[in-house]
Amino acid sequence: MNGDAAATRPPWSLLALDRAFRACWAADTCSPDDLPDWRPDNPSVGHCDITTLVVNDLSAATSWSPPSAGPDPRTATTGGTASPTASNST
């Protein structure tokens, strides 16, 4: 086949995603910053970033964020450099 493998696969069900993630979430794959809070009874702690990226890739979505009312001042740029805002200007 010459196409994208994801295009020929059936979509993931929520139950299948849940099972796959729970099989992967563990203390040794947890974000180091969150490791003190990781527990077997809440194995998703410390896995938010990678879980979000995987779900995003599987859904072929670019973002699930609500639409913005305008440019985000934290990421606005001027001439290739970040614009200062009240919170980060000196």
UniProtKB/TrEMBL annotation:
Residues 61-90 are annotated as: Disordered. It holds the Pfam family YunG. Residues 75-90 have a biased composition (Low complexity). InterPro entries: YunG-like. This is Uncharacterized protein.
